[in-house]
Amino acid sequence: MSEPSKFPSRLAWWRGRRGLSQLQLAMTAACSQRHISFLELGRTKPSREMVLRLSAAMGLPLRQSNELLLAAGYAPVWTESDLGEAALAPIRAALDYILAQQEPFPAVVVDRRWNLLRANKGAVAMVEFLVGPVAPGTAINLADALVAPDTLRPYLANWSDVVRYFIRSVEADAAADATPETAALLERLLGYRDVRATVSQAPPAAAEGPILPMHFQKGRVRLSLFTAIATLGTPQDVTLQELRIESFFPMDEETRQTFRKWAGSDG
What we know:
- It is a single chain.
- By secondary structure, the chain is α+β, with helices and mostly antiparallel strands.
- The protein folds into 2 domains: about 5-70, 434 Repressor (Amino-terminal Domain), CATH 1.10.260.40; about 85-265, 2-Layer Sandwich (Beta-Lactamase).
- Helices cover about 50% and strands about 10% of the residues.
- It has 13 helices and 5 strands.
- It has helices at about 5-15, 20-30, 35-40, 50-55, 60-70, 90-100, 120-130, 140-145, 160-175, 180-190, 195-200, 240, 255-265, and strands at about 105-110, 115-120, 215-220, 220-230, 245-250.
- α9 packs antiparallel against α10 (about 180-190).
- It is elongated, with a radius of gyration of 22 Å.
- It starts with 6 loop residues before the first helix and ends with a helix.
């Protein structure tokens, strides 16, 4: 099958996945329903600009927008750079600045599938306290570390609540990008012991507070943390769009003082 012949089926597939009728998509993309129908039937070849307009109307990530362009017979528009490339030096500097500003509390940079790319000293200190030193260069997936039975789970007192929420977020990612890689991550996480049963349980009827914290405990040390996840604004590169910065904040003074002690700081 030639690339352009794939476009009609891919457009119809994405439209269905987004739950849009032809009319709804046409209204959002500022074209006619008849034009959408002709595109899905293969009776009309889209222009490059129309493919980009449809991608935006369906909220496709940059990677999937590139794939739709290829299916229509056009070259990808959005670059996919290695984070170490010279052109991304200002981005790396910004990420390092954000991580440093979060000290002594943990902060990490991950890709869309939770592979660890960068971590500050606070994050390293917490991981080494909970599970021991990690050899330099070791590939770490934070999703696996959180969900698997033998890494963070033994120290996460409210593991069930946290994992139930986290799996829902991975399900949302899988629905949004529709890639085999994210689907595989979801299946791997669901395959860990007790995870499917935990996800199927109803959440507590009454929330304990305005945000779900993570309650770690090892020996006499207790850590209560909540997280904030940020992304880069207006990315025009696939790699940058898929970056996430997760910052951990203390919920109480005990946690705050523990991290300051580990950092050798009283401030």
